[in-house]
Design goal:
Number of helices: 15
Strand content: under 5%
Structural class: mainly alpha
Distance between the termini: 40 Å
CATH architecture of the largest domain: Alpha/alpha barrel
CATH class of the largest domain: Mainly Alpha
Shape: elongated
Number of strands: 2
Length: 413
């Protein structure tokens, strides 16, 4: 999933100029210092793939309740972030007053509304549900690791499984996630219509795969070195594998398992040989395997985790030692590289830079991904990251960070 710079359009509005300034200087690394923001890729090059994960784009605005007055605790946190730790109470009070004046002169509470629309959590977290009681080690697959409410029930899932045939035909990741969503609906309701809907998606993968490759015919993604179609994605292969294996266990039909095995193979093949595995930062399954020999792979965090879910499903069903080794190596690579992705207050999207942070919807499901990996591995490391990022989102940590930077940049020393 790629972060879309749609929020930057609000820079045309004077009342959002501070929000845009703050969001454009996400440049303070954990070690300190400034980095210049890079030019964002063309959103048209990534929207279709982003839509595969959710019928909302990565930058869909969640309408927050009004009024959205900036909480006093947030003003206090901004003031503290701009002062030395040894600042006195009087200095803190004076700085808080300065911060309020600064914010008011640049749009006031409108800044906070803009932030919540882009980076706040989804208004209804029921859209993201982890089957926390699910046994993630048995051969019998149940709920997917991150699952949605009943697709066609009273709660509307983010994934649009009522998409037109054309949308589903060009969007294989959408088909996989729809299949898994329908399977989860069957698990919750026992209604076999949902299982049949899942089988329809699995049948499509069997019929359309090219020697195990689930092909993307569009779009190209130049920002990540995808310059020609068709191409494959570790994320897409993974959700196809997870759908196919559930179809196999539901029907007993070997063709679904054979198709999953063929799809799994490409997760083990190096990128430079047409596969999806890179090794320069450890074992990483590439959502966007670069086709450009002059570019490094982007190493997208959430795409790699999605891919590992498919690897784990394949191991659970087959007990293939290669799948277990691939999963373990992938988990270790995430741990080794977490200092890159974890800004302390938020997550960045990929290994391309430490400037492009994910938005609120992304942040929410990445947190859920971390909880799911923690449940599979029983490793408290991932629980700790999930808790940290969840707290950061709840306390507006990214907003505090950005406004503090903007204040310091415009306030004479």
């Amino acid at each position: 999933m790629h972060e879309n710079p749609g929020f930057a359009k609000k820079c045309l509005s004077r009342r959002f100029r501070l929000a845009c300034l703050a969001l454009s200087i996400l440049c303070l690394s954990l070690a300190g210092g400034y980095q210049s923001a890079r030019t964002e890729p063309d959103p048209n090059a990534v929207d279709a793939h982003a839509a595969a994960h959710t019928s909302e784009s990565p930058t869909t605005k969640h309408v927050a309740p009004k009024p959205n007055a900036i909480p006093e605790a947030v003003y206090n946190a901004i003031a503290r972030a701009t002062l030395p730790e040894a600042a006195t109470a009087d200095q803190l009070a004076a700085r808080e007053a300065q911060v309020k004046t600064f914010v008011a002169s640049n749009g006031g509470d409108r800044i906070y509304e803009g932030y919540l629309a882009e980076y706040g959590p989804p208004p209804d977290k029921r859209h993201w549900y982890i089957a926390a009681t699910e046994d993630t080690t048995t051969r019998q697959l149940g709920f997917y690791y991150i699952t949605h409410p009943l697709t066609n029930g009273p709660d509307v899932a983010f994934i649009d499984c009522e998409a037109t045939p054309v949308q589903l035909s060009i969007d294989p990741t959408l088909r996989g996630l729809c299949g898994l969503s329908q399977w989860d609906a069957y698990q919750m309701s026992g209604d076999k219509r949902y299982a049949q809907a899942m089988l329809k998606m699995a049948d499509g993968f069997v019929a359309e795969s090219a020697n195990g490759k689930i092909l993307w015919s569009m779009p190209v993604v130049p920002a990540f070195g995808i310059t020609k179609a068709p191409w494959i994605s570790a994320l897409t292969q993974s959700v196809a594998i997870s759908t196919l294996l559930r179809a196999y266990q539901y029907t007993g039909n070997q063709r679904y398992k054979n198709a999953a095995t063929a799809a799994f193979r490409w997760l083990t093949v190096p990128v430079n040989r047409g596969g999806l595995r890179s090794t320069d930062i450890g074992t990483w399954l590439e959502e966007y395997p670069t086709q450009d020999s002059k570019m490094k792979n982007g190493h997208v965090l959430n795409g790699n985790i999605w891919a590992l879910f498919g690897v784990w499903d394949y191991y659970r069903v087959t007990r293939d030692s290669k799948a277990k080794a691939l999963f373990d190596a992938g988990v270790q690579a995430i741990k080794r590289n977490m200092d890159w992705f974890d800004l302390g207050y938020w997550s960045v999207y990929s290994h391309q830079d430490r400037v492009s942070t994910v938005n609120g919807l992304y942040m929410q499901f990445i947190v859920q991904q971390m909880y799911a990996i923690a449940r599979i591995t029983r490793d408290p490391f991932f629980d700790a990251i999930a808790h940290k990022w969840e707290r950061a989102q709840a306390t507006d940590a990214l907003f505090v960070h950005n406004i503090a930077l903007a204040f310091l940049a415009q306030t004479p020393r």
